[in-house]
Amino acid sequence: MNLSEQQKRTLLNKDRKERIVSPFEKVLSQIKMHTQLILTFLGVSLGILLGFTLRSANLSSETIMIISFPGDLLMRMLKMLVLPLVVSSLITGVAVLDPKASGKIGLYAICYYILSTILAASLGIILVITIKPGDKETKSEVGEGTAKSTITSQDAIMDLIRNLFPENLIQATIQQGQTYYTYEKSNSIIKSSNSSVLGNDNEKKKWNFKYNDNTNILGVIAFCVAFGMIISSMGRKAEILLHLFLVLNEITMKFVKIIMWYAPFGILFLVSGKILEIDDMGNTARKLGLYMITVILGLMIHCFITLCSLYFIITRKNPFKFYYGCLQAVITGFGTSSSSATLPVTFRCLEENLRIDSRVTRFVLPIGSTINMDGTALYEAVAPIFIAQLNGRSLNFVEYIIISLTATVASIGAASIPSAGLVTMVIVLQSVGLPVKDISLIFAVDFFL
Q1: How far apart are CA 415 and CA 174, in angstroms?
Q2: Separation of alpha carbons 261 and 36, rounded Å
């Protein structure tokens, strides 16, 4: 009995010795575990460094294009995967859940998206009123705007609804519809008692609808959700079709894993190219520096205080552990400036790093990447008030409420592509009667914000 106890102690001591790992081995194991995250962070850091270093060389536009080429390839590869990923993940996500569960998850997700978007827009309004980045003196430095638009808020909302119901599903994968107006001149004839006289030319406004080369992701999502619900209701009859989309989803995620090894290299040149494209960074920062600080401060507060508080209140868990699991998606989003391009990486972070149920991620993420645009809502709330301050226009409480609600609706309708917020900002400006042409004043800093 005593001998067996001694043997046990000897074995335990051996196990303890074997478990002792040197600090170097610990560091090495952590590097192996987070290799892609470290490489992505290095890619962004080196890209910023390279961009600012090469600015002094006054490179031509052709040279900048060549420098940006590896980054352009990364954007193309990521966007290539968006459509198969959205289609396969949404259909399987809805189909594998029973109707009650999918309805409950969808309701919770949409309520959260709307709440966080309204909070972002409200925060932007509070900050821009408090900091006051725009005044008439700044307007004299920045100059007059040149952008023009004939689209009304009503047109934009109706276009959003039209795009939810595409008339051609294949066309929806490559194009989305948009209202535009043409003006036709017509001569008015003034009749007198003796003769008819040719009057002045009158312009007649004519409504038209055109298709732009951009994926109608809202229409695709609406169809996929309906398609998945029907597959779920058919039961065993649709098992073969469901299996097809499950396999398609797995294949797409394998593509994502391969592309992510190229991502750090692509992001390096994508970020440096964007920095080199800015014409006069010093002058731009001097004129719009306070405006940029207002938006960036708002984004920081929303990210690290508002969203963290919501996460803790709902889950009672540490939000920073969640952020750490999504860090690669955050860095990729910073480099690409596109939530669509980041969607494949977000899937991988949530399912592999945070171990979230794939049935939930497949259903929630594609919708979230399209309608949950908190940053866009904050940006679209700050910019109109900044433009009002530039023009010396004081807004009342009701107009602030209108801006908040309109910015929320406009951000939902924004395509998940870079600079989409500038397009939908027309809706917000027109809702309170601000000059649309002044949007062009903030073009120069749109990439950073």
Answers
A1: 13
A2: 7
Q: Is the pLDDT of residue 418 over 50?
A: no
Q: Is the pTM of this model over 0.85?
A: no
Q: How far apart are CA 18 and CA 425, in angstroms?
A: 62
Write the pLDDT tens digit of every residue in 187-235.
555 554 455 554 555 667 788 888 888 788 888 888 998 998 899 888 8
- Positive or negative CA dihedral for 78, 250, 30, 345? positive
SS3 per residue for 247-292? HHHHHHHHHHHHHHCCHHHHHHHHHHHHHHHCCCHHHHHHHHHHHH
DSSP E strand boundaries for 296-407: none
Cα–Cα distance measured from residue 229 to residue 92, given in angstroms and rounded to the nearest whole number: 9
Q: Which residue carries 């400006």 as its tokens?
A: 429
Q: Which two tokens stand for residue 355?
A: 């171990």
Beta strand spans in 343-390 (E): none
Quote the percentage of the chain above a pLDDT of 90. 16
CA pair distance 188, 262, nearest whole angstrom = 64
- C-alpha distance from residue 400 to each of 44, 113, 157, 429 (Å): 37, 21, 20, 12
d(CA 403, CA 226): 33
Torsion sign over Cα 336, 342, 348, 351: positive
